[in-house]
Amino acid sequence: MKDFAGRIAVITGGGTGMGRELARQLAAEGCHVAICDVSAANMAETKRLCEADRLPQGLRVTTHVADVADEAQMLRFRDEVAEQHETESIHLLFNNAGIGGGGSLFFNSREQWERTFNICWGGVYLGTRAFLPMLVKADAGHIVNTSSVNGFWASLGPTVPHTAYSAAKFAVKGFTEALITDLRLNAPHIKCSVVMPGHVGTSIVSNSRKVQKDTESDALDQVEIEQARGRLVAGGVDVSQLSDEAIRQMAAERARVFLEEAPLTAAAAAKIILDGVRADRWRILVGHDAELLDRWVRETPEAAYEPEFHARVAKEAGWKLG
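^ thats the sequence. predicted structure below, dont judge the formating
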């Protein structure tokens, strides 16, 4: 699919980050866009930005409130797309929505763990299930599933457990690779890609707290503060002199650094993804750090979880986060 003009794209997690930038860039090329997110306000801003880019006349950008982990909501989203875009088919499906959280089996609750897993993996599965019939009816289709470098390297560093997100992203990668054969046999006009970004500047850190707590606040509550204390202690940090407010400030600063000091912007990441789709690549690495990790994990898999490995990647990639 070399040209997106006149096509219809569905994007989950379109309220912020890479989802927002995918919507903007596709719309600018004349592609109709339908986005879903749990935040109507964030989607309204995405739509405003799309329209500010002077869309071609008659182009449709629609927004739909939906939780990708809820099958009934995803089926409603699909039906709304069919109605509002007056179509039985779509051409592009970006299963992009994701959150963090639930990193530790020791310090996070089962609810936090499963919320992360059910969005990051379940959203990809349910999104594909919901929209596959509409892709089949198109003359050409492409499914783009967002995994992560954490889909082949289950780490945020030697002192940060990362189980739920990594498990989900490994599942996304395996699912997409399996789809290659399934689609080739049963719907050869549909292609698929797995996207594996490194550190991209998005609001995922602060947004994850909001989604996990179902609130507009991304500040840590008392339970989260105690969980953070436990993780810090496990990582060898002396927390005896850290007040609750100090831990809240540490969390806020981490979210700021992740967004503002990343080596790659969300807009640049979106362009890499769309270029990968045009080139019909099933495997799309996003960022210099992703390319480094892909090579180094393959070369020395048994060293991948050692502190020295992380330090090497962080130095070469320019990561500001530990």
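Residues 163-186 form the longest helix (24 residues).
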